[in-house]
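During the reporting period, we have paired protein sequences with backbone structure tokens. One record among many follows, to show the layout:
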Amino acid sequence: MKALIMLLSSIFLLLSCQVESDNGAVDVIDFVEVPSPILDGKVQLDTTQKVISYPEAGVNFISGHITNLDYLKREATQIPAVQVDTNDVLYCAWYSNSSTKSQHGEGAGSYATLAVSIDNGVTWLENRLIIAPIDENDCIFDPGLWMDPLGNIHFIWNKALNWWDEKGGVWETTISYDNRWIINTGPKILIENGVMSNKPTLLDGLGHALYGNFHYNFSPNAQAKTYLYTADVYTGGSPASSPILCSEIPIMPSNLKTVYSEPQFLQVGDSLSCYIREENSGIYFAKASLNNLKSWTLFKPLTSIGENAAVKFYIGRLMSGNILLVTCNDKTRKNMTAFLSKDNGVTFPYKLLIDSRDKVSYPDVSQGKDGTIYLVYDRERNIAKEILFTKFTENNIINNQKVTVKKVNSF
């Protein structure tokens, strides 16, 4: 096992030296995959496809040797999530579509797929678990990954009829990897309505997690309904309660347009900031006291990072206490950049350009116990169809040290 990983690591380093940058700003390593999972030092050949149907949830869980060509030929690949567990196993999820009913790879027939890496992102095992709709008119989209305080990994997805049915709904299962199979607990409804597109946020010392939820709004001058849900999480070793609605967050001033608000939360002392995506100007934020989460300030633009795109971003607190923000440092989907703040998000004086190319978007982040920051994002969803991965540290950002990006997916 160790010898194989050392060999693969050597191959990875060799490739890193040989691959030239597309444009001088990013080195991209092509997909590298272990032929099949490893168990007790021996290669295991999975020759069967396992399908478990959950009619009450409207999904099939598919694992093993994937034989259905619908899951091997994809019209689009997009919106990844990443999480590292306590055993340093990396999970990466995204959603795809090969249905003729889809619109540019979105909508009816979309499914979520999960890849796993056991060597710190050098190689990836794809399709370890696929969550697919039973009804071909349903859509599984915007998957998420999150580790709770007890170390359980939550695989989250949204489900709607066709592309959007004015209702939606958020589901999850807890997962682990046994070096061959993804072990899961089956589907569970998390929030009955809306969409959840970001990790929950843990409140310091309060035993609560915050869940951002929103409803699409495609009308003129749209403002997506935006909600904050809360749940007790694993205090005293007990299972978490289901999230309950805490407040609706008013999108004010009224001229802000938020088709997809995609809310995220950041605790700063005894206050809470809500960050959203505004369709014309990028990132906006509002604040509320933790003692009164029903009363929010007006939203105002985040100006301290310069230009940023009207696209999903990532913001969160690192183990050091510093704030990490990852977004496109441009008005369009280009210049994927990591920013670091040491003053609770007031300023972001440090930044690191990750990828200068066009059509990069939707970053997600997880931090390992050694402080390593793992980042995934997508590129050219309908053309290159790339899920991209990189890793770096806070010092890499502070010192503006270039990182290498590699593909997670092979198709």
